[in-house]
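ingest -> validate -> predict -> emit
validate: passed (alphabet ok, no gaps, 298 aa)
predict: started
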Amino acid sequence: MTAAPQRTTTAGPDSTAPQRASAPPGPSAAASQRTTTAGPDTAPWGTDPYADALRNGHGPLFLRRTDGWLLPLDVERWCAGADAADRSALRRCEGPVLDIGCGPGRLVAELAARGHRALGIDVSEAAVARTLRTGGSALRRSVFEPLPGEGRWGTVLLLDGNIGIGGDPRRLLDRAAGLLAPGGLLIAETVAQDIDERVRVHLDDGRRTGPSPHGARPAAGEPFPWARLGTPALLRHAGRRGWQRVGQWEAGGRPFVVLRRPLNVLTASQSADTANSAAVISSQFPRNTSGECPLAGA
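emit:
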């Protein structure tokens, strides 16, 4: 794996070591001392099949369900530049943008090129390294760990199937609400079918099963929880939590939904370190030159 550049990134308060795997600090000294339980998305995406695919810029790579069903992952598209469907989502972003599960960083890089303040997070060291090489800002972090600027982001992205992270969309929606400022936007990509599926999967490059001339192939990684949601299912879960649908469309065969965070959600970030979080958001990005309205107090 190619090492990440040694330049300093402006992605967050621990910018001198954006790929560190140890428990990273939050937006304040007090927050950095919090004890957290890592979410279920922390380990699987750091495995060799995913890292190899990102290094090579292509698959094959699949999510394999425990019953053998395969979901192909579109690594080539992820490693390319933002396409027209991506841009249809990115032009709806408001304020500072947090890309959850940023992968190789095409969305963060595109937002940066547009003058947006944007940060990607991913649990994969290879993904963060590639994001930095594309000119984006990124941290190696789980969405369920403390993050910079909690409660101050203008937009959270859950594209490329990332609504499935953790296998519990309701928990992920609640977490997104805690990351966003009141009235902030969640832009999510759903699947084309009307499904609401909870599964256990593992990453598979198609070469880890069957006989090998050199003996047994490496065992597949431990299964981890994942979810697949169509738009109707996402809207049902979101509606029960007070989210407001403000947009819905399809581009390039990919369905997207925009939800606005309810104003009355009480989050952990609405505490003594809220002012500090606002300062972090203000200091970690360059000035916004895109004409977008920044967050109040950001």
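The first strand starts at residue 62 and ends at 65.
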